[in-house]
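Continuing the batch. This is chain 6 of the set; chains 1 through 5 are on the previous pages. Same settings as before, nothing changed between runs. Recording input and output for traceability.
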Amino acid sequence: MTGLYLTSLTLSHFRSHMRASLALDGRPVAIFGANGAGKTNILEAVSLMSPGRGLRGAAADDMARRPEAVGWKVSGVLRSLHQVHEVETWAEPGSARQVTIDDKPAPQVALGRIARLTWLVPVMDRLWVEGADGRRKFLDRLALSFEPGHGEAVLTYEKAMRERNRLLKDGQRDAFWYRALEAQMAEAGAAIQTNRERTLDLLIDSQREAETAFPAADLTLLHAEGADDGPRSRNELADAFADSRPRDMLAGRTLVGPHRADLAAVYAEKGMPAKECSTGEQKALLVSLILANGRALARDFGAPPMLLLDEVSAHLDAGRRAALYDEIVSLGAQAFLTGTGPELFAELGARAQHIEVRDEAGRSHVEEVEP
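Output for chain 6:
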């Protein structure tokens, strides 16, 4: 079997799990158990097979099991296309997360070259009705799945912008101090814009070509103040930063650039903005984009990403839930799904591995069960 999937996963002193070990075979993984048993913690561990802070965006120290706080480790064997990699990531108390790939130290960005992941968690259910920051992060996670260097571009841009904002707040007027920072922001910002726009093009094409039970979304990348056009190239961004200095100084922060972008979505069939759709329709649109990401990546990377779908059945009726499972299996993705009871995954049957997670006297127990 080719593709992208974990064949083993081990957690040590990670969140609620003192030790948990899973043997996996590439099928979807249905994880069920009571609230608080540690289901999402397993998904978070898998999410650390990609660059960044994982699906919760947590600091390394916050992932350590309490009360021991002795550090944590997540390890796995990853089949990526025709290669097999041993991946370990861990953190000691007070230290940053470390990564090794095949027993060799590696930067986090290297994970993006061998593994592609995307996720949908309950906090994202309000994505379309809350602030633009969450939609930017959602789009950037999708962009990272296509371009592993996207995360580095975002970090470079944000670091330079923080320095520029400090100059603005201090009332620094000498253009010399701004030019170098704005050059860094323009270089990284142009890459961010290119990656985001390419991602939207791939998602739109994937939705257009697919037969799916989930609604298509018309997607638009908006720039500052809701405009669908704005500075894109390195030179355009550099000019925009320079021109905006007087206004930025009054505000004490940078008012133009890709950090001000937003993702707009319209339920295509109804012509209705996503923010005005029902809760169920908003969830269905999110699922549609995750599936579109999977189909597009299967073509672009050569295999669909691993999907992390936490409590995905919430706001999906039985028909759409069954359709989701059918599409995941058809896609060939190793999806990790969580829910409170085994009945939520009945439609998957033997097409998935079924894992029960229990908490007994403060100790987690993880075991595979028959569907």
